[in-house]
UniProtKB/TrEMBL annotation:
PANTHER family: GENERAL TRANSCRIPTION FACTOR 2-RELATED ZINC FINGER PROTEIN, ZINC FINGER, MYM DOMAIN CONTAINING 1. The lineage of its organism: Eukaryota, Viridiplantae, Streptophyta, Embryophyta, Tracheophyta. The chain crosses the membrane at residues 604-626. This is TTF-type domain-containing protein. Pfam families: DUF4371. Keywords: Membrane, Transmembrane, Transmembrane helix. Residues 20-114 form the TTF-type domain.
Length: 648
């Protein structure tokens, strides 16, 4: 038994008593630490011993209130002392019973299994040996059990074989192995929670279907430990039956509550894989933001651009069909080496003709033979690279030489090219967030210009390409024939209106909407603050105004007085780290800055600045950082989980 539930960091709601707002005071936990507990869901206080040992006389001393109904009269603190009563009160009797329950020697099991010192020592030796083997197998990710574990088996598989190396044939029960693993999990998570030191954390969640077709959800915490190191800690794998956003959020809350955590101390959230989680309107992040507006969502940049493309592909049927067409053609072409050779030979002829006609330039690195990249919905850059090879792909496009395909190829190449520089920049190992935000503005402006003045040039390029390759052009004044719609529901419009309004304008509008949603004003202010706190090049990007704006996005942590104190600290801080202490002159990033502040104990002098540094470290914007975290979660979710299921 862990003891009474005492959520000290919870924001206790207020209740009106005779015109005066009152609420539960967390310092009461210090006065009545051994029995007082608080239920967040009903906003009531309880007595743990009286709840566990309710008897016939439980109604004495207000016991029924503290054991069943729940105490809510916050203006009457004296009721706590009244509830305790004299030494022989019901509360004190229940408290003694609770203490006996916690005392191992008083348990019935201990009375039945009394062992002498020698037996206890031998048992502990066997237990330690089994724990050592379990620790080894868990660290290596090995399977515990095998198909044949009898005494006559030549290979009893990992657990028994490793255990037999010490000539120990005791404590080999599968149930004991599971108990040891469970104990390891409990102690590990307990150590993680203690290492967090009741500080703020970021929530990392990944949900997907494993190979057994079960919906699983992994939950990780990211926090800054006492030494200033950023820690990503896996705490639980949850099986979920309902993948709706509300159910996922409820599962997350239950896991956090199980470990005495709440959403109120979450400062950032990050999701991967599940569309339910990534949806702005109905997703988990929105539900959590409704409960805690300080739980900001700044996902990995590279994932955001991938989501933009996937969203466009799903909204526009023609674009989705184009991506599927390219994937199918590449699969057919790459399935046979002979087809690849024939294709390459045909392309050599086309290339030579283009060179002779002056359509292509010659030079080092130009017109090289490249492999066809397989287009993938989750690999954003592969689409742009694949579409860029359309000149060399003219051979396999003969089977689909229609105007609509050519139009979409040109359109998507132009649209994806607008954000390609941003995508490449975000994929770099060493990210420059300030430059990335400039590229975001460039991408938004180019998209707007493309929509306003880009139609005529696109139409001319498509028509020129079709005339060159003998592809028939439609009459733009004719009604557009949409073969995918029912004739009863068909909307009559001209071919020009369809391609210009229903395709060209809509795709660009969707791109702009995605960019604006993912890189909104709050996100931009957060990322500008991250960039300004970065110690690279002797804090060259430091900007007090932008950092102060970042602090305003955490109003619970930086109120009016704290904002004034933060401004003074920032002025003193930048003078100190730039010109006084040389230990801060060659730092490689925010992680090193955090560790150096703790190492030099300057996190105590500049506590508000250090709090902002921790918030920046919780923001999961780095591609490599997020990928490492989610890759580790996938190993646990897929590979290890399958092996663990074999052991069950």
């Amino acid at each position: 038994m862990k003891g009474p539930c005492q959520p000290r960091t919870h924001q206790f709601p207020e209740t009106d008593f005779f015109g005066i707002p009152r609420h539960f005071v967390y310092t009461w936990f210090d006065e009545y630490c051994d029995w007082l507990e608080y239920n967040i869901s009903v906003d009531a206080a309880y007595c743990l011993p009286c709840y566990l040992f309710q008897g016939e006389n439980i109604n004495q001393g207000g016991g029924n209130v503290f054991s069943t109904k729940g105490f809510t009269n916050w203006h009457r603190k004296g009721s706590f002392a009244t509830h305790i009563g004299p030494s022989n009160s019901v509360h004190n009797q229940s408290k003694r019973k609770c203490e006996d329950l916690m005392r191992e020697q008083q348990s019935i099991q201990a009375a039945f299994y009394k062992l002498d010192d020698k037996s206890k020592h031998e048992y502990r030796v066997r237990l330690n040996a089994s724990i050592d083997v379990v620790r080894l197998l868990l660290n290596q990710g090995f399977v515990f059990r095998g198909h044949e574990e009898s005494e006559s088996s030549l290979n009893k598989y990992n657990f028994l074989e490793v255990l037999s190396c010490s000539k120990n044939n005791k404590m080999t029960s599968h149930d004991i192995q599971k108990d040891i693993v469970t104990a390891c999990q409990i102690e590990t998570v307990k150590a993680i929670i203690e290492d967090r030191n009741s500080d703020y954390f970021a929530l990392l969640v990944d949900e997907s279907r494993d190979v057994s077709r079960k919906e699983q959800m992994d939950i990780c915490l990211r926090y800054v430990d006492k030494m200033g190191f950023v820690m990503d800690a896996f705490i639980e794998l949850v099986h979920i039956k309902d993948t709706s956003a509300l159910s996922l959020k409820e599962a997350i809350v239950n896991v956090l509550a199980h470990h005495s955590l709440t959403l109120y101390i979450v400062r950032e959230q990050c999701y991967d894989g599940a569309s339910n989680m990534q949806c702005e309107l109905g997703g988990v992040k929105t539900l959590i933001r409704q409960e805690n507006r300080l739980a900001h969502f700044v996902h990995c940049f590279a994932h955001q651009l991938k989501l933009t493309l996937v969203a466009v592909s799903k909204k526009c049927v023609q674009v989705g069909e184009l991506v599927l067409l390219i994937s199918n053609i590449l699969n057919v072409l790459g399935a046979s080496f002979k087809r690849v050779d024939n294709f390459q030979e045909s392309q050599k002829k086309h290339l030579q003709m283009a060179l002779d006609m002056g359509e292509l330039e010659t030079g080092r690195g130009l017109n090289q033979e490249l492999g066809r990249v397989k287009a993938s919905d989750t690999r954003w850059g592969s689409h742009y690279n694949t579409l860029e090879e359309r000149a060399s792909a003219s051979g396999f496009l003969r089977s689909c030489q229609i105007f609509e395909t050519i139009f979409l190829l040109h359109l998507m190449t132009d649209v994806l090219g607008i954000t390609n520089d941003l995508n490449v920049s975000l994929q770099k190992k060493k990210q420059d967030i300030a430059n990335d935000m400039i590229l975001v503005k460039v991408a938004k402006r180019r998209s707007s210009l493309k929509k306003n003045i880009g139609w005529d040039s696109l139409k001319e390029n498509v028509e020129a390409f079709c005339i060159k390759h003998g592809i028939s052009l439609p009459n733009f004044d004719d009604p557009y024939a949409n073969f995918g719609r029912s004739r009863r529901k068909v909307v009559i419009c001209t071919t020009l209106h369809h391609y210009r309004v229903d395709v060209f304008y809509k795709i660009i509008d969707w791109q702009l909407q995605e960019l604006n949603d993912r890189f909104n004003e709050v996100t931009s202010d957060l990322l500008n603050g991250v960039s300004c706190l970065n110690p690279i090049d002797s804090f060259s990007s430091f900007d007090i105004k932008k950092i102060m704006r970042m602090g305003e996005l955490y109003p619970n942590d930086f109120d009016g007085s704290n904002m004034r104190a933060l401004e003074n600290q920032l002025v003193n801080y930048i003078i100190y780290v730039r010109g006084i202490d040389e230990r801060f002159s060659n730092l490689g990033g925010l992680g090193e800055l955090s560790r150096k502040l703790v190492e030099t104990k300057k996190h105590l002098n500049y506590s508000l600045v250090f709090l902002l540094v921790k918030f920046t470290l919780l923001l999961l914007v780095a591609t490599a950082t997020v990928e490492r975290a989610f890759s580790a979660m996938k190993i646990i979710k897929k590979t290890c989980e399958i092996e663990w299921m074999m052991n069950s």
